[in-house]
Amino acid sequence: MAQKLPPQQSATQSPCVRNCCLDADDICIGCLRSIDEIVGWGSKSAQEKAAILERCAARKQAKEQVHK
């Protein structure tokens, strides 16, 4: 039987979109997380995951601004 993670770890789903490839800054082009954020995702608290997602959103916005 599969073990369930504690609620603080399972509440926030990974932003992974299975398009894993790091750019020159070691940021995944699929989910926009750094390699450290990807590797540590499973052990992060809900607050830490929310902070990572905020950084991802900021990276996405910055990336879109560059490509306009």
Summarize the structure in words:
- InterPro entries: DUF1289 (IPR010710).
- It comes from Pseudoalteromonas obscura.
- This is DUF1289 domain-containing protein.
- Pfam families: DUF1289 (PF06945).
- The mean pLDDT is 87.
- The relative contact order is 0.16.
- This protein is 46% helix and 0% strand.
- The chain starts with 6 loop residues before the first helix and ends with a helix.
- The chain has one domain.
- It has helices at residues 7-10, 35-40, 46-66.
- The protein is built from 3 helices and no strands.
- The chain has 68 residues and is mainly alpha-helical.
Number of strands: 0
Number of discrete helical segments:
3
Strand content: under 5%
Task: Indicate the structural class.
Answer: mainly alpha
